[in-house]
Amino acid sequence: MERAPRILMVDDDDDFSRGIQLILESRGYEFHRAEGFSFAQSMRTKPSHAAFAEVPILTLTDMRSQKGFAFPKPPHQAVFTPADDFLEKPVDAKVLLKTVAGLLRGADRT
Predict the structure, then answer these.
(1) pLDDT, tens only, 61-74
(2) What is the DSSP string of 77-104?
(3) Domains and their CATH numbers in the chain
(4) Is residue 92 exposed (0-12), middle (13-18) or buried (19+ Cβ within 10 Å)?
(5) Which DSSP category does 74 fall into?
(6) Which residues contact 110 (CB under 8 A, 6 or more apart)?
(7) Where is pLDDT greater, at 109 or 13?
(8) Disulfide engineering: 40 pairs with which of 26, 34, 44, 103, CB 3.0-4.6 Å?
(9) Alpha-carbon gap, residue 22 to 81, rounded angstroms
(10) DSSP character for 55?
């Protein structure tokens, strides 16, 4: 049996994350969550988390609305975070699903 495509999301809001999890799992994705950038980075670099080394990381943030700070696009310009992409909260489900599909397709990751 083929494994479901996996996505790792960085977000610190339990309720919001559960909603995102329901959306993604209803579409057949395997959802994982990290509460901070350092944990997400460890998922990519520590041998004990080798299974996650190639799993795309999506960060959901409301930094722009709260602090006036926007993450750079493309995300690799943000050297302080391992994210493959960022989405601003609130997130439209269609945008979320399109972004996740693009991350998985573009990186050829599962």
Answers:
(1) 886 555 555 555 65
(2) G-TT---SEEEESS--HHHHHHHHHHHH
(3) 6-105 (3.40.50.2300)
(4) exposed
(5) S
(6) 3, 4, 5, 6, 104
(7) 13
(8) 34
(9) 25
(10) S
Contact 40, 10 (CB under 8 A): yes
Structure-block tokens of residue 30: 């395997």
Rounded to an integer, the average pLDDT of 51-66 is 78
| CA atoms within 13 A of residue 41's CA, in its CB half-sphere | 8
Three-class DSSP category at 51: helix
Q: 3-state class of 48 per DSSP?
A: helix
Which structure tokens are listed for 29? 């994705």
